[in-house]
Specification:
Belongs to the NAD(P)-dependent epimerase/dehydratase family. SDR39U1 subfamily. The chain is α/β, with parallel strands linked by helices and 292 residues long. It has 13 helices and 13 strands. Helices cover 44% and strands 18% of the residues. Helix 4 links the parallel strand 3 and strand 4.
Length: 292
């Protein structure tokens, strides 16, 4: 099986490449940024033998949402997805499966959401996710089985959000963001990559899935758990005002979490290895984390 992956050098992509090459004996084809933004005929020729295409490309959303950065965020998600759609349209034999990324930021912060919720956020991130998913569903209209994963915060002992938080907590400067009451949807990196394998192997699965752990927690819960795990106090907190000064509208990503449940994944029989934050943190070596 040949699998094409965009964004393959990132945290998720590097884990996924190792997983799919090992467990599924897949031949991994890394789709470069240059190809993804370039001529769609060249892109189509490059991916012509892929049975599966996994689209992970996307610039980091935690930034100041000025007009320039907003365009970067849109291009990295929507333009690239549209280019893949155009490239697939040129293929004589189309992929059997297209897996696109999205985010739980599509939802508002007022309700608890399963995949059938239509209570979407009306901020930039919500609109970005809606347009992103619409672009992915154009590939579905070509007859390609399409899965869209809405991701939360990915926790790994090899980088990502956890690595950014650890130096602060290590020096006893950790604390909640804002008042800490915002939801904190998370997933262990191993559960995430296992879900990708699961939908590849289970051919009846298609559509949108919330790819987050079943446990509902807040940023305050996360702060307390990480503090306890590292045996470091977390008395400090970052006021919402400071975050808004630093990131402007982009602070919404940190201050406005979503309460989300992975209903469709659970109904499909997927079993989370790390369904709670405690199980997730306990899977990591405290000694290794303290050395970040």
């Amino acid at each position: 099986m040949k699998i094409g992956i965009t964004g393959g050098s990132g945290l998720i992509g590097s884990h996924l490449t190792e997983k799919l090459a090992g467990d599924l004996n897949a031949d991994i084809l890394l789709i470069s940024r240059k190809l993804l933004y370039g001529n769609v005929q060249d892109l189509s020729e490059f991916i012509k033998c892929c049975e599966v295409i996994i689209h992970l490309s996307g610039a980091p959303v935690i930034c100041r949402w000025n007009s320039k950065n907003k365009q970067v965020l849109r291009n990295s998600r929507i333009t690239t997805t549209k280019n893949l759609n155009s490239a697939i349209a040129l293929m004589e034999i189309k992929p059997k499966l297209f897996i696109s990324t999205s985010a739980v930021g599509i939802y508002d912060n007022k309700h608890t959401h399963n995949e059938y919720s239509k209570n979407f956020s009306d901020d930039f991130l919500g609109e970005l996710c809606i347009d992103w998913e619409n672009a992915a569903n154009e590939i579905k209209r070509q007859g390609v089985r399409t899965v869209i994963f809405r991701l939360g915060v990915v926790l790994s002992d090899k980088g990502g959000a956890l690595a950014k938080a650890l130096p602060v907590f290590r020096y006893a400067l950790g604390g909640k963001l804002g008042n800490g009451s915002q939801a904190f949807p998370f997933i262990h990196i191993k559960d995430l990559i296992n879900a990708y394998s699961y939908v590849i192997l289970n051919k009846e699965m298609e559509g949108t899935y919330n790819l987050i752990a079943p446990e509902l927690i807040t940023n305050r819960d996360y702060t307390k758990a990480l503090s306890s795990f590292l045996n470091r106090p977390a008395f400090f907190h970052v006021p919402a005002l400071i975050l808004r000064v630093l990131f402007g509208e982009g602070a919404n990503v940190l201050l406005s979490g979503q309460r989300v449940v992975p209903e469709r994944l659970l109904n499909a029989g997927f079993q989370f290895g790390f369904p709670t934050l405690r199980a997730t943190l306990n899977s990591f070596s405290s000694h290794k984390l303290s050395n970040f």
